[in-house]
Design brief:
The structure holds 3 protein chains of 3 kinds. By secondary structure, chain B is mostly helical. Chain B has a domain of 42 residues. Chain B is 69% helix and 0% strand. The radius of gyration of chain B is 23 Å and the shape is rod-shaped. The N and C termini of chain B lie far apart (67 Å). Chain C is an all-alpha fold. In chain C, α3 packs antiparallel against α4. The chains are: A alpha+beta, B mainly alpha, C mainly alpha. At the B-C interface, α1 of B face α2, α3, α4 and α8 of C.
Chain lengths: 173, 64, 240
């Protein structure tokens, strides 16, 4: 009996030691992540960029939604397109200048991330453009139907809630 | 052209997943067969009566 | 506690694997075939990603399984450190490579999905990086648990690593909410309604269940082989 109770006490002791270590380690990691959170973000939004302007030589990533109607493409002599578009986060907007081929998912209303430098305020020179897609997965027929009936325009914002698609399509017919 | 390249990525993913799964399955079947055969041979060499409580039969006793 | 010790004694576990392995394997391969065939043929293409969205039916279950398997490693580590449960170490040894396989496949299929949709194979955003960290945690666990001549020291070191590394799971889960990432937030959450058409949701869940069952079958058969190997080993020791 004595052996058994001391065994139990040792097990309980090990449990509390592990729990204490875990809490210490977890809070340390939490504090580190909190302190470095500005470096962990993959991109900055236009309003964050205009709040504190970086050096013109500094390479940064700018993320946001492509403003509807802002996309202008001109073809250069060498065949690669020269592209101008605006990125917004709802508060501020910034014009991006990019020379190259855009990813397939790039369109007006899409969220994109551009890598480059801020040459002048509101003028961003991008060397690479990535398309970000949202968490909505929608079959093509539903997307076409919602657009045809005017329920949703992908250029002006995210799609409606998935649970409402069926009722929206039925009402449209 | 665009259509085929999209399917290429899809087929590559499915292929990788299924090949890996087949490899893991094959490996664990072979390992299990080998372990069973080996144990049977050893049990013939060193017969242990089924009622014996020797720790050798169950080496995974709680350390303490 | 005593009951758990009894039911999870190695001899009892061998009895459980006798029916659990074929059950999981048969049900799992059936459900997985339904899920993957539905994902390849029945599920509709996405309105903007097109056919590449089908990679989701591999990528997402693998991501879930990678996290779940690491949680299993951590639970085994806890049982090994506190109760010195003999089976906990064996499960940890056998589950590690399976988790590493799931993580590797999640990273590779993610890369194959990222190229056509984002326009890049890899970016160092918080979600992708924390998933890569999980892969290295698995590799470290696999190496460290076999590295020592004295297996007990290896078990202890690996258990500590698995408990320390569990911090990475909430980071993976919440990285897409805490920081700006290129990776999109989760489509399926425990609280909200999924942001996905039902025709895409059911193949995803089916293949997730299928992969889980096949993973369990593989794990059971590996544990069984490990137990038999140890029994042989102790017979050799006894014969000498």
């Amino acid at each position: 009996m004595v052996v058994r109770s001391s065994l139990l006490r040792r097990k309980a002791g090990r449990f509390w030691i592990i729990l204490a270590c875990f809490i210490c380690f977890g809070s340390a990691i939490g504090l580190i992540l909190n302190a470095f959170s500005s470096n962990i973000v993959f991109f900055m939004t236009p309003s964050q960029l205009s709040a504190h302007t970086p050096q013109p030589t500094q390479t940064i990533r700018l993320g946001g939604m492509v403003v509807a109607g802002s996309l202008h493409t001109t073809h250069q002599d060498d065949g690669t397109p020269d592209i101008l578009f605006d990125i917004t986060d709802g508060q501020a907007a910034m014009t991006v200048h990019y020379h190259g081929i855009l990813p397939d998912l790039f369109r007006e209303g899409q969220s994109v991330v551009a890598l480059g430098r801020l040459k002048a305020p509101h003028n961003f020179i991008a060397s690479e453009v990535l398309a970000k897609h949202d968490e909505t997965y929608m079959p093509k027929e539903i997307a076409d139907e919602l657009q045809r009936t005017g329920k949703w325009d992908p250029r002006f914002g995210p799609p409606p809630n998935a649970s409402s698609w069926n009722s929206m399509i039925k009402k449209g017919q | 052209m665009h259509f085929t390249s999209q399917w290429g990525y899809v087929i590559a993913s499915y292929g990788l997943a299924l090949c890996g799964l087949c490899g893991l399955t094959l490996q664990s079947i072979i390992r299990l067969r080998r372990a069973q055969r080996r144990l049977a041979t050893l049990q013939q060499l060193h017969p242990v009566s089924p009622t014996s409580q020797e720790p050798a039969l169950n080496p995974l006793h709680v350390e303490e | 506690m005593k009951h758990i010790h009894h039911y999870l004694s190695p001899a009892n576990f061998l009895q459980i694997t006798r029916w659990a392995t074929p059950l999981c394997a048969i049900c799992g391969s059936g459900i997985l075939s339904i899920g993957l065939i539905a994902g390849l043929c029945l599920a509709p293409p996405d309105w903007q990603q097109g056919e590449t969205v089908r990679i989701m039916y591999i990528h997402v279950p693998m991501a879930w399984l990678a996290s779940a398997c690491y949680a299993l490693l951590a639970i085994c580590g806890l049982c090994s450190l506190i109760w010195r449960h003999p089976l906990a170490n064996i499960i940890a040894i056998e589950a590690g490579p399976l988790g590493a396989y799931a993580t590797a496949l999640c990273l590779i299929t993610g890369s194959l999905w990222g190229k056509p949709s984002w326009g890049t194979w890899w970016v160092w955003d918080a979600r992708l990086t924390s998933m890569l960290v999980l892969f290295f945690l698995y590799l470290g666990h696999i190496l460290i648990i076999r590295a020592f001549d004295d297996p007990i020291r290896g078990h202890r070191a690996a258990a500590l690593l698995s408990l320390v590394g569990i911090i990475d799971l909430p980071i993976i889960k919440f990285s897409v909410q805490w920081w700006n990432t290129l990776h999109q937030p989760a489509s399926i959450t425990l609280t909200g309604t999924p942001t996905m058409a039902f025709s895409m949701l059911w193949p995803l869940l089916t293949s997730a269940v299928g992969f889980t069952l096949i993973g369990l079958a593989l794990l059971c058969s590996r544990i069984k082989a490990a137990l038999l190997e140890r029994r042989s080993y102790s017979l050799i020791l006894r014969g000498e």
